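Escalated from tier 1: 5-amino-5-deoxy-1-O-phosphono-D-mannitol holo job.
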Amino acid sequence: MCGIVAYTGCKEAYPILIKGLKRLEYRGYDSAGVSLAQNGTLSTYKQKGSVDQLDEFCMSKDRSGKTGIGHTRWATHGEPSTTNAHPHLSSDGRISIIHNGIIENYVYLREELTKRGYQFQSETDTEVLAHLIEDIYKNEGCSLEEAVRIALKNVVGAYALAILSADEPDQLILAKKGSPLLIGIGNNEYFIGSDGSPIVEYTRKVVYLEDGDVAVVSPQKGLTIKNIDDETTKRPYLQKLELNLEQLEKGGFEHFMLKEIFEQPRAIKDSMRGRLNVKKDIVELGGIREYEQKMLNARRIIIVACGTSWHAGTVGEYLFESIVRIPVEVEYASEFRYRNPLIYEDDIVIAISQSGETADTIAAVELAKSKGATVIGICNVVSSTLARITHAGSYTHAGPEIGVASTKAFTAQVTVLTLMALSLGRKKGTIPLSEYHKIISHLELIPQQVEETLKLNDDIKAIAKFFVEKRNAIYLGRGINFPVALEGALKLKEISYIHAEGYPSAEMKHGPIALIDEEMPVVVLATEQDTYEKTVSNIDEVISRKGRIISIVTKGDSVVKNKSTYCIEIPETLEILTPLLSCVPLQLLAYHVAVLRGCNVDKPRNLAKSVSVE
Ligand code: M6R
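Tier 2 regenerated the structure:
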């Protein structure tokens, strides 16, 4: 949510900022802006809309300057507009600030600053910081860095900040609390980013700022990090940035989303690599080894997550309850954190997040930790906040996911959850050995079967035409495929703007059936064996109300196929593993419908990739 990039060094800053903003645009694309330090003044250029629009606007401007900051915005306070775009300036125009997060007490601060004569240009929460820092800087006679630290003591909320000043044009001040910020260290130059994507082509040496850190970088003076409340200087902890440049490109695909859907065989394989060895009969997740005994002794497991990760967590509930026989509760992180939940010291909380930065998930983890629970993370972004604050965890190794609609992260999360359940179930003895062996040998085949499923791309593209003019859709699934129905509906609604709902198939009779008519496409996941006849009855109920069935079935199925307007056949696997295959046609369907409707697939309206504000 909002992307931050900044540079100081011997190169021209503008090209680095613009390139960085393009990479960060998936975090927000309502507006973009840059500030450059130029001969004792700051030049600030902002535009509503995309980074390309900003770049075009800047073509006729002075883009010189070796220190600068850039921002791409996902609007929280104030509509998307050029005025509300970052950077925001102090009233004398000599301090420029970009921000990712939310200043919760901005109304109070704004009132106080207004009383002191400050005038506000924008409706944003961020602008208060520019004036507050200016006020302290001018009245306290302190350095800008001290002014920032004093200001932040008065701020409630979350932030990653980069601050540029005309008074010290070769320096950047950075601060972090709640939102991510990292510093790439080059040769007498510094590259700052909300994530590694704007940094990776220049350096792999990075420092991840911690909550409460205020850093100053300057080619002359180097890097110093202090805490907001503490004068003492902290030793920077250098880490290697684990990211490949090719992973950030579209690689010949029209959209990141399509590329990422097609990367799933590789992503699943990578998530299993070194963890599943069928020949040696090994399922082992090194990252949780130390906590495995605790997990085996747990009275219950609570899974917290949001969006697609919550759907993966719900698949996890089925996996853990059937394989490990431990009760599982799956919670929306946003609900969990605010309802004073019962959390016990012997609870295991599994937090799932692609980005590892989702504000509600992070807050849920902090809450669980404060009550003494053990928290295990499942996340994709290496060294993200979630990875750093959990007791232990497993990375999904899906590679960077740029498309706002999550695809490969989902299948990678389900893969890790499957491995976790199998490893624990085996140790706990809650799964018969023969069953365990059957599952692991089928699991090994999944990447190849996803590859096979992807060959249906053209058929699914043809089916997508049926949805183009529709206004609603219903997705039905049972058992472990119910969360897949939810995920399929989420994919369709978030990128094509067609209203879609997922339901457990049998729930249809309890209300949603009233919606069925000849206009209603009903996507049915009909791969499960145990309740196959029940699903067939549900399909008959839809057909007798003139609804149109689009079914996902196991290859060779004829009963459901004959009842369907369109039918997609996926390879045969064990029921417990079907989500890894059945979600793929639903991702492709949503993708093609959105493309046919002319929607911006990778940057759907109103959304951002990483929801780092509440
Ligand atoms: O990074 P996270 O997995 O924590 O993100 C959670 C949700 O914001 C995310 O899955 C969102 O629902 C996606 N847009 C779904 O495609």
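The domain at 455-606 is CATH 3.40.50.10490 (Rossmann fold).
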